[in-house]
Amino acid sequence: MTAHGVVRDGSGRVLLVPTGRHDGWSLPGGTVAHGESPQSAAIRLTRQQTGMATQVRAARLVASDQVPRPGDAVVHTDRLIFDLVPTAGTPAERARWYTPAELVRVPLPGYAASALAGVIAEGGHTSDASVRDFGSTAAGTPTADLEDPDDGWPVERGLAMDDAGRRVQRFSTYARATDAAGRMLFAKIADGYPGAGRWHLPGGGTDVGEAPADALLREVAEETGQVGTIGRLLSVSHRHNPVARGWEGYPINWHTIRVVYEMAVDEPTEPRVTEAAGSTVEAAWMRPGEIDRRALTDLASSVL
Known about the structure:
Layout lengths: L1 E6 L6 E5 L6 E2 L2 E3 L6 H13 L2 E16 L5 E15 L7 E3 L1 H4 L6 H6 L1 H6 L6 H4 L22 E2 L2 E3 L5 E12 L5 E6 L9 E2 L2 E3 L6 H13 L4 E17 L5 E14 L15 E7 L11 H6 L1
Keywords: Hydrolase
GO molecular function: hydrolase activity
Cofactor: Mg(2+)
């Protein structure tokens, strides 16, 4: 999991850093440390790479890509991109400001091109990430990892974990799903999982090679039987529990990054759990007056 920053100055220019490959440029950022919030990671890495102190204004984009490595290995990276406001400092020599008009000629990795599509449009150009992305396949998937992170995390079952399975990082997507009647969709956590018996937002962890939006649609269907349309990005948060205890039966140093989207369910049905032996035991639509905040998880309560 990586965090990146879109830093703009008063004239609308964007601050980029060189990638060291193909004469390309990219957004400052890199790997999120275990237990670190992605917002803090974006601020920390932007300062290290550009010399600029910043503050987070908003979450801008969530993306993922898969990078082939020698042999049969493929590295899946979930990327969280934030709008950062510069507060102090002078850009380091290696960093450079680009105007919207100049960006159209800058070779960018796919996720950066997607994040900056609106900025490039300000310069009177349109952006096609699959065309502008250097070192990519026809589908626009990078063939070289620009940051080349080496964080020592083996990957298994969609989770990044240490060799003993006692330290885990997980990337998860959730939905604030509503219908035309104003009801909100919830999923109750099954026994044996953290938060058992509480109502949670439908959603869960992404699988290797799965885009965040695809994962969310799959999870909502598995946990509630509903089909929805994904809307705007609502929030990015994280939770670090160094002694989480679940179905494994032993405490795990667990760090999860949580992305929440709006979702509209135009044709709601009676909720039902379609996934067998999963983390959800029940699903329900609730009207605002029916929601008991005491029975919600922290994430569900914060989204309300």
